[in-house]
Write a structure and sequence with these properties.
With 85 residues, the protein is mainly beta. The chain has one domain. Helices cover 0% and strands 42% of the residues. The protein has no helices and eight strands. It has a four-stranded antiparallel sheet with strand order 1-2-3-4, with no helix packed on it. A hairpin with a 4-residue loop joins strand 3 and strand 4. The radius of gyration is 13 Å and the shape is flat. It starts with 6 loop residues before the first strand and ends with a strand.
Length: 85
């Protein structure tokens, strides 16, 4: 699963995915969901997800890639881990 958490605002996450156009969609057990657009007017990454700590502190950072997909950085050294493209 793309999402490293199992609840948002006390709602249980049942599915999360990133589309080819970098849209992030999260679905909850009660049937509600949200989508973050992966399209940016300025051509840069349209969204980032983290737990609020620095990537240098072993945090993982998900970043939408301009042009589609996402990249994962982390491991305490701000290193690139993987891309879905």
């Amino acid at each position: 699963m793309l999402l490293g958490m199992n609840s948002v605002n006390l709602k249980k996450v049942v599915d999360a995915f990133c589309s080819e156009s970098s849209d992030l969609e999260v679905h909850f057990a009660d049937g509600s969901w949200f989508r973050v657009s992966g399209t940016s007017e300025d051509g840069y990454e349209s969204w980032q997800l983290s737990d609020g700590t620095s990537v240098h502190e072993s945090n993982t950072l998900l970043i939408a890639e301009s042009g589609g997909g996402y990249a994962i950085f982390g491991g305490g050294s701000n290193k690139f881990i993987e891309s879905n493209l």
